[in-house]
Amino acid sequence: MRCRNSGEHARKTIVRCEPDVKISSVADCLFCQIASGLIPAAKVMESNRALAFRDINPQAPTHVLVITREHYPDLAAVARAGDGLLDELAGLAHQVAEAEGIDEPGYRVVFNTGPQAGQTVGHVHAHVLGGRALGWPPG
Fold first, then answer.
1. Model confidence pLDDT, tens digit, residues 70-97
2. Is the pTM of this model over 0.85?
3. Taking burial as the number of CB atoms within 10 A of a residue's CB, which of 25, 36, 78, 101 is the most buried?
4. What is the CATH number of the domain that holds 97?
């Protein structure tokens, strides 16, 4: 359990406690099933704690997803974990860009967090996009 002070109000301190966010696997999670090998994916590369594979609905010539092997629902959960996993995801995203030859001309890494941002799978994942000019603003 992680607890944090969210402010003092009239002589009392409010402390929010949040459960640890690491879950090994969620049975009905598509990305947990891919990470465990139950559902096949076109793997690009992997590490002990992360996996990169091609998106089945690419939005750019290069569109690779980088996921955690353990279940974290979103970017905020990985950030709260604080065990270097977020650094590992970013590093693997860059390695994908290098391997795909998009590191020099440029690439985009996107974490959609929550339904209004377009997160359609409740398992943290980074989109590595490149291979063409990417417009701004996105969406």
1. 999 999 999 999 899 999 999 999 999 9
2. no
3. 78
4. 3.30.428.10
